[in-house]
Structures are given as structure tokens and as C-alpha cells.
Specification:
The chain has about 90 residues and is largely without helices or strands. It has one domain. The protein is about 5% helix and about 5% strand. The chain has a two-stranded antiparallel sheet. The radius of gyration is 13 Å and the shape is globular. The two termini are about 20 Å apart.
């Protein structure tokens, strides 16, 4: 089982829970669970993208912008049985 820590918590615009300045009604699961790298624009983000908070560092492997990979994670951020681990490539 693979767990994903939302990158949102390291963003300058993050509030709490699943709310931020870009998505005041709720951060989409694709963004929150890193299936979409929000350093790239996402529909409905009001022109606001991820900005690293001062003093924070990105988790290993996220230094480069990631292309969207789809949404294999369940609502708890876990890969369902049978899905390949991220390092094996997601479709």
C-alpha cells in the first residue's frame, strides 16, 4: 500500500482541511492527492498555482514539475489493489 502526503500543506495559499485561495470551495482530489502537479494550471484555480511557503522544502522527488498522471488514488490517498506504484508508472 502506498500513501500520498498532499503537497498542498506546503503551499503559501493553503488554508486548512481541503481549502485554499485557489479552491475556496474545496481542493479537487486530483490536485490534493498529487495526480495533478498544481505548479501547472488546473481548471477552476482562479489563476493561482502552488507556491512553496517560505522555509518549507518539497518532499524528495518533487523538485521537478510532474506531468499529470491521472487519479489512481482512493479518497484516502491510497492506491487501490492492483494499481502500479508511482515509480512503476501511472496511466
Amino acid at each position: 500500500m502506498t500513501f500520498t502526503i498532499p503537497i498542498c500543506i506546503a503551499c503559501e495559499y493553503y488554508k486548512e482541511g481541503v481549502v485554499c485561495d485557489a479552491f475556496p470551495e474545496g481542493i479537487p482530489a486530483e490536485v490534493y492527492m498529487r495526480a495533478h502537479d498544481h505548479r501547472l494550471s488546473y481548471p477552476g484555480d482562479r489563476g493561482i498555482t502552488f507556491q512553496l511557503k517560505e522555509g518549507m522544502t518539497l518532499p524528495p522527488g518533487l523538485e521537478e514539475v510532474q506531468q499529470p498522471t491521472g487519479m489512481p488514488y482512493d479518497k484516502y490517498g491510497m492506491l487501490p489493489d492492483g494499481w502500479p506504484a508511482p515509480e512503476e508508472g501511472l496511466v
